[in-house]
Design a protein that fits this description.
36% of the residues lie in helices and 21% in strands. It is an alpha/beta fold.
Length: 375
């Protein structure tokens, strides 16, 4: 008689392909692979048209909450977070063996803890990035104390934590004082898929990928491009992504005289198109001041494109630029960024690259780590 498959309730308010971002892509890729190990049910907002329940790739998606904007101008929407948190109580009548929850935006973890306790099930939470009191203060000023209080209380709720980077694991373990077991399962890539994608025909000198949010610091990249332009080195740049800063960044590019050199692309949504655009660039630039992992950096490196990123304290992506990876880590300033971009463009680019070190990030290994943590 075959053993009954574990039933996983994965709770996140945003997931690909309906919403784009590193975390959303992480869950999109993870759930369909996790379905080989367990029966997976995703509980999220009603992102799609049609019935509240749909099945794709052996994964059942449940819309437990009406679709609401995740952002209120530049910051996460508190109303959306509260609504999703209340709707998570619907899991009281759901069938599951374990809850696997996205840590953001924290509020939903409190009703999920209640659900797990009443149902006598485990609550496992994936922490994508750990902010701590200093970053909350920079992010919100004095009200940041409330955000830090919420995060510190939320850290006490899970039975176990999955961290998506070693740096986040270190910070979580420090803040919980080791009271909650932590497993690291980083963002993953499908290594085989990169080899089957040709570079796009429309090339660019520079490419940047990510949600257009303040902490991504695309404004810093535009300033660096303006410096290079003033030095007589005009570069073409392709900025791939959507987000609340799109119009402000377009206005900044126009003000810096870069409109003819910088294109903003919101139409690149599938992975093959993204990888083709990465391969068509000479350098990929990620000036983010905060990255829990930096999946776009890893994808650029897997495409064989050198990377420039910053040494900002909360930017984990800099740790991906090791002796095995082709790139430069520079100070988080426009002049330093401009200098690093110029350095990469001036040096010979290797015709081949040894990508053996990337195998540790293949999805097969990552999924096995998550499945083990959930068991």
């Amino acid at each position: 008689m075959s053993e009954r498959r574990q039933v996983v309730a994965l709770v996140t308010d945003a997931i690909g392909p309906w919403h784009r971002g590193g975390k959303e892509s992480y869950y999109q890729e993870l759930v369909r692979r996790l379905a080989d190990h367990a029966e997976v049910h995703v509980y999220t907002m009603h992102w799609w048209d049609g019935p509240r329940v749909r099945v794709e790739d052996n994964v059942t998606y449940h819309a437990i909450c009406p679709k609401r904007s995740l952002y209120n101008e530049r910051r996460r929407s508190i109303r959306q977070a509260l609504l999703f948190a209340v709707c998570c109580l619907r899991l009281l009548t759901a069938r599951f063996d374990v809850i696997e929850a996205d840590h953001m935006p924290y509020m939903q973890l409190f009703p999920l803890r209640l659900v797990a306790t009443l149902r006598r099930k485990r609550l496992v939470v994936t922490w994508h990035e750990c902010w701590g009191p200093d970053y909350w203060r920079r992010y919100m000023g004095q009200p940041g104390r409330i955000g830090w209080l919420l995060e510190s209380l939320a850290l006490r709720l899970p039975d176990a934590i999955i961290s998506t980077s070693p740096l986040t694991a270190e910070r979580v373990s420090e803040l919980t004082r080791g009271r909650v077991p932590v497993t690291t399962a980083t963002y993953g890539i499908d290594l085989a898929s990169f080899a089957h994608v040709d570079r796009a025909t429309d090339s660019s000198d520079v490419v940047a990928v990510g949600r257009l949010l303040p902490h991504k610091r695309i404004d810093l990249l535009l300033e660096a491009l303006a410096i290079l332009n003033d030095e007589g080195r005009p570069l073409t740049a392709r900025i791939i992504g959507t987000g609340p800063q799109l119009e402000a960044l377009r206005a900044q590019a126009e003000g810096l005289g870069l409109s003819a050199f910088v294109e903003f692309r919101q139409d690149i949504t599938d992975q093959r198109h993204l990888y083709a655009s990465l391969k068509a660039a000479q350098v990929a630039v990620f000036p983010s001041e905060r990255e829990g992992f930096g999946i776009a950096v890893l994808e650029a490196l897997a495409c064989g494109v050198p990377v420039v990123t910053t040494s900002a304290q909360a930017n984990y992506a800099q740790r991906l630029i090791t002796g095995d990876a082709d790139g430069i880590v520079c100070e988080p300033t426009a002049p330093a960024l401009a200098d690093a971009i110029g350095t990469v463009l001036d040096r010979p680019r290797s015709a081949t690259s040894d990508a053996a070190w990337l195998k540790q990030y293949d999805w097969s290994a990552i999924t096995e780590s998550v499945a083990t943590a959930l068991r």
